[in-house]
Specification:
The structure holds 2 protein chains of 2 kinds.
Chain A lengths: L2 H30 L6 H12 L3 H25 L6 H39 L2 H7 L4 H40 L3 H11 L2 H27 L5 H34 L2
Chain B lengths: L1 H6 L2 E12 L2 E12 L3 E5 L6 H8 L7 E6 L2 E2 L5 H8 L2 E4 L11 H12 L9 H11 L15 H13 L5 E5 L7 H18 L2 E6 L2 H7 L2 E6 L2 E6 L1 H5 L4 H7 L2
Parallel strand pairs in B: 3-8, 3-9, 6-7, 7-8
Antiparallel strand pairs in B: 1-2, 1-4, 4-5, 9-10
Helix pairs in contact in B: 4-5, 5-6
Classes of the chains: A mainly alpha, B alpha/beta.
Chain lengths: 260, 251
């Protein structure tokens, strides 16, 4: 096969995948509001996705706050602008770094987990067994997981942001002798609704993207253990790419509507 | 007269089933009838389309053409709700057991019950039904174990218990003895027979295990080149002079 033919094939496969993913998303919206509702499984998934990611998001957020503040201090000191530190860190974390980093971490932990779990269920015919027993596996497995990631990710992001700000406050307290009260006063003075609202809205989309791609890759996993590995791996790769695209669109729209 | 009528009641019928994957024509007009209380074995080489046929039967795959009637309902034209309801009358034992590995044995058995118990007007308590199903397969002690803690034979038994929990009228077995040692395979076959006697179910068994076919079958269909190549009892087919038929029964 010549190089140009290979490129054509790959491009075709890429757009076919985009089409299939859109169809999958369409099926989600079509079935999410129809009965029966799997509330019990949804709550179980919220617990799995939310509660079990807290430690990872917390530790990452804390280190992020520490490192970000430590790295920014020398530059701000050069301009005599250390007093801007709380507002700069606060806005950066709430508006951009917190949501994106937390979403990327969750794509790695949750997205790959969903891809591998559903992939393994597909390969071992558990999804077929569910369907044969008269249960709609799309509703039971896919809708609950996508809904859970969509609902849980904003909460995880808020949690990650809070821990990151706390990490930053510790550095400022130790290095700049800024009290915690003063630090958080300055942070909350600087943050406006135009920072919080777009960040919150995009975090729902981040959650939806993580659940959607993870479920899509797992649900249509190819046969064999290699297929499960591929589903898990490509779920992370595709989701990460999608997160940046969503982030770009969100920033672009926020710029229009909120004039940030 | 009433007795004769009972003997010929058809519970499942496949007519001229065709299924292709690209240029690979797997089923080329396959037909069968399963009668009430009968054990019908479909034999064929690996890749002959046995599993494709059984998946078309329960709606996991769409046939290209042909009709599939289960209890007088054509499943190819049924809506999702009707199909799901009809599926409660069919038990399916998967080749690899297909137990939900994130659930205990109890939860595996409760799963179909939680959804369909009320629809099927089952008045017994869920716990009692689960224990009864596990006792039928001799595994009442394994109720709180995870599937990963069970041996291959035990997994197959639990899968059989799950297939039986809604007390279906028809049971489909996809290679029930594949991957098991000869002793465990014999135990599973005996279990299938005892269940058939106890509940009077009709069974369609997909296999290439001649011993399994000999012990359990009332009738055998050989699936060759996508059609029902030969049909008869074990004795009739094993005495056949046709080379294609002989290939299955030669030891």
């Amino acid at each position: 096969m010549t190089q140009s033919l290979r490129i054509v094939e790959r491009t075709k496969a890429f757009f076919t995948e985009i089409g299939d993913l859109s169809f999958f998303a369409g099926r989600f919206f079509k079935e999410v509001f129809s009965r029966p509702f799997e509330f019990q499984e949804l709550l179980r998934q919220c617990y799995h996705i939310g509660n079990r990611s807290l430690l990872l998001v917390g530790v990452t957020g804390f280190i992020l706050g520490l490192v970000f503040t430590l790295q920014s201090r020398p530059t701000l000191m050069e301009f005599g602008a250390e007093s801007w530190m709380p507002s700069m860190v606060g806005i950066s974390i709430v508006r951009e770094i917190g949501p994106v980093i937390t979403a990327l971490i969750c794509a790695g932990r949750i997205g790959s987990g969903i891809g591998a779990e559903l992939g393994s269920m597909r390969v071992t015919e558990q999804i077929d067994a569910m369907e044969v027993s008269g249960t709609n596996p799309f509703k039971y497995l896919v809708i609950t997981r996508i809904t859970a990631t969509t609902l849980m990710l904003p909460i995880l992001i808020v949690f990650g942001d809070a821990i990151a700000l706390f990490g930053s406050a510790i550095v400022e307290n130790l290095k700049g002798a800024v009290s915690y009260q003063l630090y958080f006063n300055q942070v909350f003075d600087a943050i406006e609704y135009s920072d919080v609202i777009p960040a919150t809205i995009k975090s729902f989309f981040f959650g939806f993207a993580i659940g959607l791609v993870g479920c899509y890759k797992g649900y249509y996993c190819k046969k064999g253990t290699a297929g499960v590995g591929e589903a898990s791996n490509s779920a992370v790769v595709y989701t990460s790419m999608l997160l940046f695209i969503i982030d770009f669109i969100a920033v672009f729209l926020a710029d229009i509507f909120f004039e940030i | 007269m009433i007795e004769i009528q009972k003997e010929i009641t058809t519970v499942l019928e496949i007519k001229d089933l065709e299924k292709s994957f690209g240029d690979n024509h797997v089923l080329n007009g396959f037909s069968l009838q399963l009668f009430e209380g009968e054990n019908l074995v479909v034999m064929g080489k690996s890749g002959s389309g046995k599993s494709v046929m059984i998946k078309c039967l329960v709606g996991l795959m769409q046939a290209d053409s042909g009709s599939i009637r289960i209890k007088d309902q054509d499943i190819t034209v049924l809506g999702q709700t009707e199909l799901d309801l009809l599926r409660t009358e069919i038990g399916f034992l998967f080749q690899g057991s297909a137990l939900y590995d994130s659930m205990t044995v109890r939860e595996n058995l409760e799963f179909p019950l939680r959804r369909h118990k009320e629809k099927l007007n089952m008045t017994e308590h869920t716990e009692a039904l689960v224990i009864e199903a596990l006792e039928n397969v001799g595994l009442a002690d394994a109720i709180d174990l995870m599937p990963a803690e069970l041996s291959g034979g035990m997994q197959r038994r639990v899968a059989l218990a799950r297939a039986l929990i809604l007390k279906p009228k028809i049971i489909l077995y996809d290679e029930p003895t594949t991957g098991l040692d000869p002793i465990t395979a014999k135990e599973i076959i005996q279990l299938m027979r005892s269940i058939q006697k106890k509940y009077g179910t009709s069974s369609l068994i997909i296999t290439h295990d001649v011993d399994c076919a000999r012990v359990i079958s009332n009738r055998i269909i050989l699936l060759v080149d996508g059609i029902n190549y030969a049909e008869g009892t074990y004795q009739e087919l094993s005495a056949s002079n046709d080379p294609q038929v002989q290939a299955f029964f030669k030891h």
